[in-house]
Design a protein that fits this description.
Largest sheet of chain B: none
Structural class of chain C: mainly alpha
Distance between the termini of chain C: 17 Å
Order of helices and strands of chain C: HHHHHHHHHHHHH
Number of domains of chain B: 1
Helix content of chain C: over 70%
Radius of gyration of chain B: 22 Å
Bound molecules: adenosine-5'-diphosphate, iron/sulfur cluster, magnesium ion
Strand content of chain C: under 5%
Chains: A alpha/beta (314), B mainly alpha (312), C mainly alpha (330)
Oligomer: heterotrimer
Number of helices of chain B: 13
Number of strands of chain C: 0
CATH superfamily of chain C: MetI-like
Chain lengths: 314, 312, 330
């Protein structure tokens, strides 16, 4: 088992109270698995991604554990996490376009970053990795401002995976790109796994149709909880959770890009995470809701590799 | 991505730095919901402390002169006496009441800050909005003018103007100060306007045929109101400091009394050598307290409006 | 890059032009007959001085000439370095009076600006996000930067000069000495220089420290910092990058603050009777020496323009982005 997350709870501290952005999340990602993480905006995808590598200033680890390759990650302790970052868990952030220090040449920045981690830079290896994503070694002598958006994105992909992490988190890496670059990025992610540079991967997206092309499994989140996780084609062809079904049916056609339309097809909106209601969080919008839904449905395996949190799916 | 014209990095960075130079962090307008802003405002120590200091001095300026039944320059007491129960801040070499001068001087200080800072803010907004919104040639020209006034050392220009034309009142002094101290504000506002200009709600207004001035007043200004307010505060403080320097050099208003003029008199009549510390400490302390409180208030506001800067 | 310098030079050229024009125009706005009023305001005893002045003023204003001609003559005189004759130290040419004072002002201003900038930035960066330091040093910084230059000068002169009696408070060297290249004289120069320097330095230091502290806090929230932190970069590296990027707006800030710093130096000199340009300005005003005042004005403007240009060059050296295609200036 590569990654095991158990009952993870992460809150945001705000004035009006704690936003329960991650409220008891348990799942596993196997070695070599590429897991797509989908759900509408605000469902907690980025929070989950960040929780596995670096909590930002307002996030608080409330409970639950994260285990990677048999070792528990100290997710709540930023200093202790440093040892695991980059080498065990790494990230391609949502803001790749601005992730590089604007006043350092890229090569120099990479060298300094590695040095600060006590790692040696192997220039030949770095060049080989750049070649893999179609960049020449020249980029190392350039400043970020001299690169196009797509080039910056690829540089970040190379940098993030330099230490061959067990787990790579890619957060909305395609949303800022045009369709052809998106395809290229998707192929690159696949390549990283296939060449063994990265063991497993979580690809965060609101665009199921894109992630479907590379993901082995897809996990769907709703309002800070898990709704469903299954092999990618199962999610697309036989979803069991009513939310996933609505999500899939609102796609015009699998394989065609669907912009973030905020699920205009599903009436209503997700509950506030400040003070979420008891029971199933999808209840207000669920066409199948019944009495029992006032009780929280467990996230249980309904078929091999297929888990759902819905009373109707069991 | 942004609609900025091809302009050097140095310049655009300079714009964000303009405010910094005046003592605040570079600001990105982040619109916090009003209730949240108020909540933070009341709990922000810097903002509250700064505001309290400013208000105390403002009240003193407004009320204390009402309780004194002689003028600030009247020779009312014994000469050169140290602070006492009767004359709280002592008297000058000529027997003028330093406390009375201080109280009246505070009025001049607030007045010059309000009028000078206000005028500079108005000019800065007019130039900044127009340049930022219209772009093109208008922007080029306004930018050129702004840069010229920016590099001219304001105090030295004011020296020449005041020396030749003579300045009789605080109002005229404030007028000249306002005319010379707007450029950094114009640059900062211009940069902010640029970034707002291409937003959806502005496009919408433009497409529905709303006229430019109305778009600026209705759509753009409200979206950077916190920023404008902070700019005004800095201009306010800046005007006070410039006026104090002018008064100190002897080019202040020829009528009335001001804190800078008190310093001028104290220095001119050798208060230092005579050890009359009560003559020169209050006016300088007053200016420092007011301007310092304004700056601290500004940082507080910055934290209220820009959540990134808040310490958790 | 050349376009950038071209633009800057154009602005500085225009600024100089505007400054000269202001200098020419302002006297013309004076109420009444300027020549007469200036003569009467100057109230000097020597009749030959009065005559010389009348000749000069009449020539300067040249009221019988068309306006453009007056203006052209003004420029012609200026370009020959003729700024008129000083009344205060009649009959020394204004240019000579100023040239004698300039070294004193530069000697105060240049070290005060450079040292306060370097030290303030270092300190501000150090204090940022270090709670106890931030909470104690920050208020001090704000008080310093809000202090009128002349007031701090007065306080230092009073406290260290008069009450404690450790340092002299007037002049650039002991009145008992003649300028010479002796150690004794140099010692006296330094002794007299210390207090005015210290008061300039302190006020400016407060401003830079606060500016840097705020910039660092801002930078530490930048995306590139979050990325580095996500990859477990050391705190040292993160701070080094943040400092390096925060210094850029501080360089621009230096250009923006030049006017204020110069003004600070002028009033500080007045407090310490330090014989630089500020002292000249005071004397010019007290003696209604308008030529001297105008000449000093032009000298200061030229100095500020040169300093601006030096800063522009420094910026290009420090910010790599200005040296490459200016395309994506985000
Ligand atoms: N800095 C923050 N402070 C408070 N709440 C936040 C913050 N960031 C995100 N949230 C809340 O946490 C929830 C999950 O957000 P996020 O993980 O960003 O969702 P997603 O990536 O799926 O769009 C949302 O309800 C959002 O409002
Ligand atoms: S548990 Fe009930 S409300 Fe929730 S998704 Fe299933 S049927 Fe709908
Ligand atoms: Mg997200």
């Amino acid at each position: 088992m590569s990654l095991t997350v158990t009952d993870l709870r992460v809150h945001y501290r705000t004035l009006r109270g704690e936003v329960k952005a991650l409220d008891g999340v348990s799942f596993t990602v196997a070695d070599g698995e590429i897991m797509g993480l989908a759900g509408e905006s605000g469902s907690g995808k980025s929070t989950l991604g960040k929780s596995l590598i670096r909590l930002d200033g307002r996030m608080r680890h409330v409970g639950g554990t994260v285990e990677l390759d048999g070792v528990e990650l100290p997710v709540g302790d930023s200093a202790a996490m440093d040892r695991f970052r980059f080498s065990e868990v790494s990230v391609i952030p949502q803001y790749s376009m601005s992730a590089l220090n604007p006043t350092r040449k890229i090569g120099k920045m990479v060298a300094e970053l590695l040095a600060s981690r006590g790692e040696r830079l192997d220039p030949a290896e770095l060049e080989r990795r750049l070649e893999l994503v179609g960049l020449s070694r020249d980029v190392l002598g350039r400043y970020p401002i001299e690169l196009s958006g797509g080039m910056k994105q690829r540089v970040v992909m190379v940098v993030s995976t330099l230490l061959n992490p067990s787990l790579l988190i890619a957060d909305e890496v395609t949303s800022a790109l045009d369709v052809s670059s998106q395809k290229a990025v998707a192929r690159t992610l696949l390549g990283l796994r296939d060449t063994g540079l990265v063991t497993s991967m979580i690809v965060v997206t609101h665009d199921i149709s894109l992630v479907y092309q590379i993901a082995d499994t897809i996990m769907v989140m709703y309002a800070g909880r898990l709704a469903e996780k299954a092999p990618a084609d199962v999610i697309v062809t036989e979803p069991r959770h009513p939310y996933t079904r609505l999500l899939i049916s609102s796609l015009p056609e699998v394989g065609v890009r669907q912009a973030d339309k905020r699920l205009s097809g599903i009436p209503g909106s997700p509950p506030s995470l400040l003070d979420p209601p008891e029971g199933c969080r999808f209840r207000d919008r669920c066409p199948l809701a019944f009495d029992r839904c006032a009780e929280q449905p467990p996230f249980t395996e309904v078929a091999p590799g297929h888990s759902v949190a819905c009373w109707k799916a069991a | 991505m942004t609609a900025e014209p091809p302009e050097s990095v140095a310049e655009s960075v300079a714009e964000s730095a303009a405010v910094t130079a005046a003592g605040s962090a570079a600001v990105v307008t982040v619109r916090a919901p009003r209730r949240e802003a108020l909540y933070f405002a009341l709990r922000n120590g810097k903002l509250v402390a700064g505001l309290v200091v400013v208000l105390v001095f403002l009240l003193a300026a407004l009320l204390v002169p009402l309780t004194i039944d002689y003028g600030p320059n009247d020779y009312v007491g014994p000469a050169a006496s140290a602070p006492s129960g009767e004359y709280w801040f002592g008297t000058t070499t000529f027997g003028q009441d330093v406390f009375a001068q201080f109280a009246y001087g505070l009025r001049a200080t607030f007045l010059v800050g309000l009028l000078g800072g206000g005028l500079a803010a108005v000019i800065g907004m007019a130039v900044g909005f127009t340049a930022g919104y219209r772009g093109g040639l208008v922007d080029e020209i306004l930018n050129m003018i702004t840069n010229i006034v920016l590099v001219l050392p304001a105090l030295v220009v004011l020296l020449i103007v005041n020396a030749y034309l003579g300045v009789r009142s605080v109002g005229v002094q404030a007028l000249f100060i306002g005319l010379t101290s707007w450029p950094w504000a114009a640059r900062a506002i211009r940069a902010q306007t640029f970034s707002l200009r291409s937003r959806d709600f502005v496009d919408l207004a433009r497409l529905s045929g709303v006229r430019t001035p109305k778009i600026i007043v209705r759509e753009i200004a409200p979206n950077m109101s916190s920023y404008l307010f902070m700019t005004f505060i800095l201009l306010f403080g800046g005007s006070i400091l410039i006026a104090a320097s002018l008064d100190f050099i002897g080019l202040g208003p020829t009528q009335g009394v001001s804190l800078g003029l008190m310093l001028n008199n104290a220095a001119r009549w050798s208060a230092l050598h005579l050890g009359m510390w009560w003559w020169f400490i209050p006016p300088g302390a007053g200016i420092t307290a007011i301007v310092g409180a304004l700056y601290v208030m500004n940082v507080g506001l910055d934290e209220v409006f820009n959540p990134k800067l808040r310490e958790m | 890059m050349w376009r950038y310098f071209g633009r800057k030079l154009l602005i500085y050229g225009l600024t100089f032009f505007v400054a000269v024009t202001i200098n020419w125009m302002i006297p013309r706005f004076m109420p009444g007959d300027p020549v007469q009023s200036m003569l009467s305001r100057a109230n000097i005893a020597q009749p030959e001085a009065v005559e010389a002045m009348r000749a000069h003023y009449t020539n300067l204003f040249g009221f019988d000439l068309p306006l453009w001609k007056q203006y052209a003559n003004f420029w012609a005189a200026l370009l020959q370095g003729d700024l008129g004759i000083s009344i205060w130290v009649f009959p020394t040419p204004v240019t000579d009076v100023i040239v004698r004072a300039v070294p004193y002002t530069l000697g105060l201003l240049v070290p005060a600006i450079l040292l306060s900038w370097v030290a303030g930035n270092r300190f501000g960066a150090f204090a940022a996000r270090r709670k106890w330091l931030d909470n104690t040093a920050l208020p001090v910084g704000y008080v310093l930067t809000a202090t009128p230059y002349m007031w701090l000068a007065i306080l230092l002169a009073w406290g260290l000069g008069i009450v404690a009696g450790v340092l002299p408070v007037a002049g650039a060297y002991s009145f008992a000495m003649e300028p010479s290249w002796s150690w004794e004289f140099l010692g006296s120069l330094v002794e007299h220089w210390l207090l005015p320097f210290a008061s300039l330095f302190l006020v400016a230091f407060g401003g830079w420290a606060i500016g840097m502290r705020n910039m660092i806090i801002y930078e530490l929230e930048a995306d590139y910092v979050h990325y580095l932190q996500s990859l477990g970069a050391s705190r040292r590296l993160v701070r080094r990058y943040a400092f390096r990027n925060a210094i850029l707006p501080q360089i621009t800030g230096l250009a923006l603050q030049l006017g204020v710093l110069v003004a600070g130096a002028l009033v500080t000199e007045i407090v310490f009777s330090y014989p630089g340009l500020g002292h000249l300005i005071l004397k010019a005003i007290q003696n209604q020496d308008f030529f001297l005042l105008q000449g000093t004005f032009l000298f200061i403007v030229i100095g500020v323009l040169i300093a601006n240009f030096v800063i522009d060059v420094a910026y290009v050296v420090v910010d790599p982005r200005t040296r490459i295609g200016m395309g994506e200036a985000a």
